[in-house]
Amino acid sequence: MNTQTRYRRQREQPIETWLRKRTSHLDYGYKWKTNPLHCNTNETVVEFLTGQRRWLSRITNEKLARHFSGEDTFYFTGSWSGESLFMIDIDCHHRGSLAGAMAFAQHLAEKFFPGLYFEVSTNGKGVHGYAILEKKNGQIELVNSLLLKLGHALDEYLMLHPFHVEMVEIKGLSPVVTSHNGRFTGYKSGTLAKFPRAKDRFEELKATTRLSVDDLIDLADRIKGECCSAEIPTVVVEEKKAKRIAAGSIRGTHIDASVLPKYVAFAEELLGHQPLRTSGRSVVTAEDLGIFFILLKFFSLNMNSDGSLPTARFRALWDAMFKKGDIDRAFDFKRFAVMRNYLSSMGLLDWQDERYVYSGGNQKGQAAKWRASEELLQALLQLEEKKKERDTSLTGTTPIDFTQLTQQKLYPKPIQVVSTRKWRDYRPLLRKMGLLAA
Q1: Is 0.70 topped by the overall pTM?
Q2: b/e per residue 348-380 (b: at least 16 CB within 10 A)
Q3: Secondary-structure breakdown of the chain: helix, strand, coil percentages, each rounded to the nearest 5
Q4: Distance between CA 196 and CA 205 in Å, rounded?
Q5: What is the pLDDT of residues 267-290, one digit of tens each?
Q6: Which backbone phi and psi does 348 adopt, to 5 degrees?
Q7: pLDDT of residue 394
Q8: Which residue, among 372, 112, 125, has the nearest Cα to 218 in the 3D structure?
Q9: Which helix (H) or strand (E) holds 317?
Q10: Nearest to 278 by CA among 183, 159, 131
Q11: Residue 127: predicted pLDDT
Q12: Of 90, 224, 88, 108, nearest to 157 (Cα)?
């Protein structure tokens, strides 16, 4: 062994030192019961930065050792300058599978993040990917906003290429200290992300994707561009005064939006007159869910021959209705995902196949196969029938017999559904609204 090799080996950093140099020394977290908590509160950090406190809690080798062994769970936030670690959190808490999360992580590594290091999450239901961002002093707020933009772009990309995954987020944003004329003015904590656990894969972690700020800007724009240029077939949508060609996947079909007020009232009852929150700033309103019901009913009665319902198909007709002024709410990927997961958790969606196969190279893609449950479809059809009765002043119309609908083979193929989702008995609500017999 020559002197140069021996000297280089002596300078190699252990994983604990390597991690500390790429994460914040002010802000880290600890998992208490089921929730991550900041070990140094904002008030504590402010006291330290203003000289009222002489020390802060730090992430030590002993704490990291407990994290690596699985005894405890610790979290990091990004550093202020130099190399900063951040995490791509691929979640499958309520929907999806580990196989889907691994497939999506591998896809990201091949298409957007060369050499990306990723490992299975602690609960075994998701995947954590780790990358390094090279930044300079004074770029903290800029970089945080760019990472958020990257997260939104990835979430939108996931919706258009729906791997068997619930959602994807960027975590590990840096804490922000603000000042004016050299005087401290404020502090905001960062976004907690789990430290990597696989200590034996340290060499892989060190070789993970590295991005500059310019690379980050280009990558977010590239992913967003791929979402905007997603190939969507054409559909003819009925115009009020003139015909227009709009994006979609069904030819010669007409969607009647006049039933929307009935569906909005139904949605308000299901939501309990409370909006649903997404992972971002947007919220799901009763109007959003009412629009979702209109399209869900249409697609459930006009399924693809293989029973699939691609997200792009849903988005295309939503956009077409918005462009011609039938609805006032634009399509939003986060709201769409929350509504679909919410209805699924109530047992109002039937899933034949939740898997998604990405189309690339010689591999043929496959969209997830889902539709409205029989009871939900019956409720939507009866609401539409009641509106027709009111509009035409008809009396004596018999309630819709759903068994006759299925006998008429409105579905191209009967679907056998085995659901393992959490069941909520919503039938009393439907009976209260007069949509099911007592």
Answers
A1: no
A2: bbbbbbbbbebeeeeeeeebbbbbbbebbbbbb
A3: 40, 20, 35
A4: 9
A5: 888 887 777 887 777 788 889 999
A6: -90, 0
A7: 44
A8: 112
A9: helix 311-323
A10: 159
A11: 95
A12: 224
